[in-house]
Amino acid sequence: MTEHSGEIVFWTLRQKFIDSSVSMPEKSRQVMYYSLAIGHHVGVIDCLNVALRCSLKEYCEWLSLLTDEQARRKMAGVLTFGEIVIDATHTSMLTHAFASLADDGAAPWKALSIQFIHLLDDIVREPAIYLMAKKIT
Question: Which UniProt keywords apply (predicted)?
Answer without folding.
Answer: Lyase
